[in-house]
Amino acid sequence: MSEKRCYTVKEIQEILDVSRPTVYALLKKKEFRWIQLDGGKYRISKKSFDDWLDKQPE
Q1: What are phi and psi of 21, to 5 degrees?
Q2: CA 17, CA 10: separation in Å to the nearest integer?
Q3: Structural domain includes residue 1
Q4: How is residue 3 annotated by DSSP?
Q5: Among 4, 8, 30, 39, which residue's Cβ finds the most Cβ atoms within 10 Å?
Q6: What is the domain range of residue 47?
Q7: CA–CA separation, 44 vs 57, rounded Å?
Q8: Domain-located, residue 43
Q9: What's the pTM value of the predicted model, to 2 decimals?
Q10: Is 40 helix (H, G, I), strand (E, B) or coil?
Q11: SS3 at position 7
């Protein structure tokens, strides 16, 4: 199986240990690339998110 290319909002919540509204606030700020699917679900670019996370201060 190939490596996943996207995270879900729930996965981002778990990675960052933050609330759902916090994840949506980050999406609104366009901190990383994401798409919105039919039905309102979001998919966050794994590479874009991982790069953003690596750049965050300790």
Answers
A1: -60, -30
A2: 10
A3: no
A4: P
A5: 8
A6: 6-55
A7: 21
A8: yes
A9: 0.84
A10: coil
A11: strand
Of 26, 25, 32, nearest to 6 (Cα)? 32
Asked, for residue 11, whether it belongs to a domain, the answer is yes
Q: For position 1, what pLDDT does the model report?
A: 60
22 Cα distance to chain centroid = 11
Alpha helices, DSSP H, located in 1-58: 9-16, 20-28, 46-55
Contact 48, 31 (CB under 8 A): no
Q: How far apart are CA 3 and CA 6, in angstroms?
A: 9
CA distance 55 to 10: 21
Tens of pLDDT, residue by residue over 1-58, are 677 899 999 999 999 999 999 999 999 999 899 999 999 999 999 999 999 999 998 7
Is 39 domain-assigned? yes
* CATH number of the domain enclosing 31: 1.10.10
Count of structural domains, the chain? 1
